[in-house]
Design a protein that fits this description.
Number of strands: 9
CATH architecture of the largest domain: 2-Layer Sandwich
CATH topology of the largest domain: Nucleotidyltransferase, domain 5
Largest sheet: 6 strands, mixed
Shape: elongated
Number of helices: 13
Order of helices and strands: HHHHHHEEHHEHEEEEHEHHEH
CATH class of the largest domain: Alpha Beta
Number of domains: 3
Distance between the termini: 91 Å
Radius of gyration: 37 Å
């Protein structure tokens, strides 16, 4: 009987359609049923037609003949199927654990462990060490061992000064004192400079459909490119922001001028009786604690306005409360 006659000749196409819909055991039994119905040589013809293993079809015939009942939820007899590499290579799991132990991060007492090495690299090192395996095998073993993948977390602090916490408490106490007396407290900071010109920006804004703002096709700077340097001031009491934009660099002169303009345009009217001002800022940049231009420059607006200006710096590695970069465009457009 040819492969195009009998059972396969009549139902072969239907068999190919139904096999992908079956679980492992059902697929095996259907292949065995087809091989049995095909008669002599049916096992080979079924395997050739479906692409299944000859042994799978033969096993299906044997199970049908034995009328074997498997426990609920099982597709194979206990102990059936190909053994895992972890079983055939007892040293594989130990070798994998040894590889990732040095690259493991986090608290060893935590139930969550993770590794920074990729599965492909681990598989390559295991294979080179005499434990051939694929990256998919490594992934299965990693999950079984309780490892997961995570990205870096910027949470580790540098060296801590013993008086670091005391500086925070000092700034908090001075802020409460100034605000209780009706005197202004401002936080100051400079943000990333931006190229001046018709350059594209991230984000979107509302407008008529099909009428986007046309900008340059690339962001390469021009010769003698000028930049805008936004310097922000945040009024703690009034929860208000002010931005002064310079066109040079992030210098002490820009920082001092920004405070002078804030006082002239906002501060003197918001705090008409104030005779002192507390400026809170981070420890570096144009308003850093070591900058002589910043310290000497503040003497001018203090003399001009008759205001005592006190500066409190946060410890290195911290950032004062000020405006985010996302808010600068809106404030500048509003005339801040």
């Amino acid at each position: 009987m040819g492969a195009d006659e009998g059972f396969l000749g009549q139902l072969g196409s239907s068999l190919l359609k139904v096999l992908p819909m079956l679980d492992e055991r059902s697929r095996r039994l259907v292949l065995g049923m087809a091989a049995e119905a095909e008669g002599e040589g049916g096992t080979g013809r079924v395997a050739a037609l479906t692409g299944a293993s000859w042994q799978t079809a033969a096993n299906g015939k044997a199970e049908l003949a034995a009328e074997e009942e498997l426990p609920a939820g099982r597709a194979r007899r206990p102990g059936g199927g190909r053994k895992t590499l972890a079983e055939t290579d007892p040293g594989l799991v130990t070798a994998l654990d040894g590889l990732i132990r040095g690259a493991t991060r986090g608290d060893p007492e935590s139930p969550l462990a993770w590794t920074t090495r990729s599965a492909a690299h681990l598989a390559g090192e295991l294979t080179g060490a005499g434990h051939p395996c694929s990256d998919s095998t490594v992934l299965r073993m990693l999950k079984r061992l309780g490892y997961t993948q995570q990205s870096n977390s910027r949470a580790q602090e540098g060296r801590q000064h013993p008086e670091r916490d005391g500086q925070f408490r000092h700034i908090a106490a001075r802020t409460r004192d100034y605000l209780a007396a009706g005197d202004p407290v401002i936080s100051v900071d400079a943000k990333k400079r931006e190229k001046i010109g018709n350059y594209g920006q991230d984000g979107a804004e509302w407008g008529p459909p099909g009428e986007p703002v046309l900008v340059r096709s690339h962001d390469f700077p021009e010769k003698n490119q000028r930049h805008a340097v936004p310097y922000g001031i945040y009024d703690e009491e009034n929860n208000a922001g002010f931005v002064n934009v310079g066109t040079g660099g992030n210098t002490a002169a820009l920082a001092v001028e920004s405070i002078r303009r804030w006082h002239a345009m906002v501060g003197k009217d918001a705090y008409p009786r104030a005779r002192r001002l507390l400026v809170v800022c981070d420890a570096g940049g144009s308003n850093g604690y070591a900058g002589h231009g910043w310290k000497a420059g503040l003497a001018d607006p203090a003399a001009e306005t008759g205001t005592d200006i006190t500066v409190a710096h946060f410890p290195p590695g911290t950032q004062c409360r000020c405006l985010s970069s996302a808010n600068y465009g809106a404030l500048a457009a509003a005339g801040g």
